[in-house]
Amino acid sequence: IHQKSYPASTTKLMTCLIAAENAKLQETVKFSQDAVFSIESGSSNIGIDAGQSMPMEECLYGILVASANEVANGVAEHIAGDMDSFADMMNKKAEEIGAENTHFVTPNGLDSDEHYSTAYDMAMMARELIRHEKILEFSSIYEDYLRKNTDNSFWLVNTNKLVRFYSYIDGLKTGYTGKAGYCLTATGKKNG
């Protein structure tokens, strides 16, 4: 449980934790060119364009349900000014909660040799994150739309298929990259 590994998009648990502690759901996030176009081609995204804006609530929804990398980047820039400063915030928070074998470089979890965590540390982050009920609620939804009832609605399907097939699984986050393989940090309740 203390072996360092690439966490892939389970990284976004910390991204959402920092957002939950440092932003309001009604805040507006405007996406920069760098936030949108610095992600790897073909990686998870929801098709945000540079210059577009979304409420933080929809951003968190997009991150937790669809694993949107460009949205994680935009949230990081909104909160810290740039992604490097946000990574510093992530690392400081990891240290505060006792995640001693974790180091973050990006808000989205795309592969980097200096970006790693452990199963134990991810559990520590999950424990902190589920204290924010809205976050757990977002991560438990299997499918829904952003911008419902508009000409610009976007269908989201949760990357965590367990929330659909097991009634006691109530959320959190999956991840995958070539170096990380398949990753999962999940929560659930069964028989109390």
Outline the structure in words:
39% of the residues lie in helices and 16% in strands. With 192 residues, it is an alpha+beta fold. The two termini are 25 Å apart.
Provide keyphrases for this structure.
single chain, 192 residues, alpha+beta, two-stranded antiparallel ribbon, 6 strands
String of helices and strands: HEHEHHHHHEEHEE
Strand content: 15-25%
Instruction: Give the class from helix and strand content and strand pairing.
Output: alpha+beta
How many E strands? Answer: 6
Biggest β-sheet strands, sense, barrel:
2 strands, antiparallel
Strand order of the main beta sheet, please? 1-2
Q: Give the overall pLDDT as a whole number.
A: 95
Give a quick summary of the entry.
The protein has helices spanning 12-22, 33-37, 56-66, 69-80, 83-96, 119-129, 133-139, 162-165, and strands at residues 28-30, 53-55, 143-146, 154-157, 169-177, 181-188. It is an alpha+beta fold and 192 residues long.
